[in-house]
Amino acid sequence: MKSKDKKKVSRQGVSRRGFLKGAAIGAAAVTGADLLKGQAEAKEDGYYPATTSPSAEFDFTQKSGALQPDAIIDSACQFCNSLCRLKVHVKDGRIIDVLGEPDDPVQSGGFCVKGPMMTQLVYNRFRLKSPMKRVSGEKGSPDSKFEPISWDEALGTIATKFLALRDAGEVRAICASQQRFAIANKTSGRMPRGTGSVIGRFFTLLGSPNDTDVGPVCNDAGGNALAWTFGLGNFTNGYGKDGATGKEDLGAAKYFLFLGTNQAETHPVTFAYLLRSRAQTKAKLIVIDPRLTPTGAQADEWIAPKPHTDQALVLAMLHHILDKNLHDAAFVQKWVLGFEELKTHLVKQGYTPEWAETITGVPAGKIRQIAEEYARTKPAAIFCNAGISHQLNAFDTYRTLAFLAAVTGNIGVNGGGCNFMHNTWPGGLNLPAIEGNPPKKDVALPVGPDYFAESILTGKPYRLKAIATAGNPLVSSANTRQVKEAYRQLEFYVYTGLFMEESAYYADIILPVCSGFEMETVYMRRDDRAIRWQKQAVPRVGESKPDWEIWIDLAHAMAKLDKKNPPAYWTENFPLEWKDYRNLWATFVKNTPGMGGMTQERMEKRAEPLRWPCPSLDHPGVSTLYLDHPSWYQVVKGLGIRNADTASQDSDANRGVTATSGNQGKRFLTPSGKVEIYTSELEKKLAVAGHAALPIFYTHPEVTGKNPTIEYSKEFVQNPINPQALTQKVKLGGISSGEVHQEYPLMGMIGRPSVVHFHTVTQWTYTGKQMNGIRLVQIHPKVAQRVGIKNGDAIAVESPRGSITGTAQIWEGIREDTIFVPHTFGPMQKMAEELGTPYYEAANTLVDDQYYDNLSGQQAYKCFACRVRKA
């Protein structure tokens, strides 16, 4: 096919809406051929051209004086974990164009629609440009009034409040010997790498244990499960070639098993790389998702289980593989602990494909088919994302998936692995040891920033008084109505961000931050542990500052006001030289095992990103973890075991790799040096929180039918996965009543609106609102017909927590019992007025915050009981 014809097909494919007509959609699996009239045409939907410039016979920009850049700056996109390099063309200090990196074989010169939207964060009339303080109005009200203040006043106000709370000890005791400080923080995925380590250091000096990260609303559970099973909480394989072996890694896979991941829209450029590789290898792609996404449209088979039941499907796959002796016996004998216990467990629990059919709605024969294909096709790669993470059984589901890879010998091989997205590199970026004697922090609130609301409103286990956030909890947190009430009652709130987002209206102090093009840093990271250096392309907007600089300056404000400690307590632990990110990064490289080769100088020279671990300047970086190869064992010597108890992979806090001599010669970095499915020590640790080393099936009580579910006790225990925090002990296996479905008969899921959006920030760009400023709620035609809804109707979606509005999108590619509600929309997104699109309440208004994974803290966004009606 000629390139001109290829682009024509691609453009037709993007807008195609009728390709599902006549397809038999439901729980049963269907093939791409069944769904699509012409698989070749369908494959073009995921096609990304080598450049984003429109094709033309002639280039009329050549020798244009106005359009020739003065400089081309190597930066990077912050909008997803594909980590595309952006070559920013600058003229007279202004951005005039953005192109991709042609010399990166994974990026292949391209990027998705979001790349140029980075510029729209810089040039945006809604940007916050100076610190501000609240002067009037009820918290949360759009009539709230703020006035600009200096940075000195803003940071002085925050320091004064933090110190007053620390010194007053305004906390509620959990027991007589334990006092807690009432100050908390929540970081965000938008922050430059290492900022979390700086903030963690600040909270250590302050003495508050409540320094939390974005993981519980992102993908922490996958990293936790990987760490407990294999030793490192990281995405196990890499895109492109493995530098140690010279072999293709994920591109060599012969079988792709995707569960709960819509990579065509969430990771489009790395997914395009997989598709290009698949065109050569003829690898089979299986997509498991309750709805047909652009990713499913590329698949050989799309399988649609009931929401929140993936664990049952994987348990049944394991049962069939072991029952038919399809496992890799040699690998299991040499490298796996607990295989026989797993086999006995699966039989005892009766986790057969027939049992799973009653839970998931997927035919038993189809489960057996994909189990056999996965076990017999090597190498086979598993990919997961938020569709698995945002379930209340996320940790146990990910552990089950890790077992699947282990027993089939698909771990530690090029083209295989457990590629649980956003569990990247390394768990912590380390700073030097703290000077002085900080107070003991003890344990924090239950893992997950959504528990902040519970603490504020009920005082259980104690009451928070002050919070600083880098995210937007008034949109991202479950049960938005309750979170709003909590932040209204919160005594003191600091919001840092680019725009007057929903959370800013609850703030007492607002701090403006830089966008990605306005700073030199390491920003995003690719899922396969790869990072890029990015240079500052343009000056900072207004008085905005990068996050790490804000916290260093706040530490120096504390030094001026702290009456209990000398100034050096703060200033020596936060040297001003760290405000230059090059110096801060050099400190991370020096103090973090496995990063010796990841210097700023080296990364600046590379077209490709560099993968961790990378212990020396002559090391290529590790692609495949646990590879039975001399290069891996060489890395292990200096890497140090990451303690699985403390692995939280989306955190930058100081919970990372620590040197130890006990891992030399080990292939897997578990205590035993093997894959640990079951050990008595694992069983003992997990039992504290109500779990077991061999997971049992349970699901959300709002999944239709009567299913094994979860009960939360009032007892708080130390979290075995995250021992720095408390958690509620649970009881698993009780049967749900199903009563909620008498009024709310459907199951709702929340997720990404389209490839255009990345969380709420893209809703503040012209392109984002222009292309996808309408919340399109996907509803099966039969459901729409029953309630009298037509395509394009204004509708309301209601759950026991509240209701939101949207526009009906009649969509045959979704289970009849399920609807899909896009998130990222919020009621204060002023770009809506610019483009004439509606203002929307947060989708998470519908989601229950009482049900969460008590190990990882993951919120359960992927199932809530609901109903729909015309608005």
Automatic annotation (TrEMBL):
A GO molecular function held by the record: 4 iron, 4 sulfur cluster binding
Recorded superkingdom: Bacteria
Gene3D superfamilies for this protein: 2.40.40.20, 3.40.50.740, ADC-like domains, Dimethylsulfoxide Reductase, domain 2
Residue ranges of domain 4Fe-4S Mo/W bis-MGD-type in the record: 70-126
Needed co-factor(s): [4Fe-4S] cluster
Keyword Signal in record: yes
GO cellular component, one term: cell envelope
GO terms of biological process kind: anaerobic respiration
Keyword set includes Zinc-finger: no
This protein's UniProt keywords: 4Fe-4S, Iron, Iron-sulfur, Metal-binding, Oxidoreductase, Signal
Localization annotation: Cell envelope
Main localization category: other
Family: Belongs to the prokaryotic molybdopterin-containing oxidoreductase family.
NCBIfam families, per database record: TAT_signal_seq
Name this protein carries in UniProt: Anaerobic dehydrogenase, typically selenocysteine-containing
Species: Allocoleopsis franciscana PCC 7113
Taxonomic lineage of the native organism: Bacteria, Bacillati, Cyanobacteriota, Cyanophyceae, Coleofasciculales
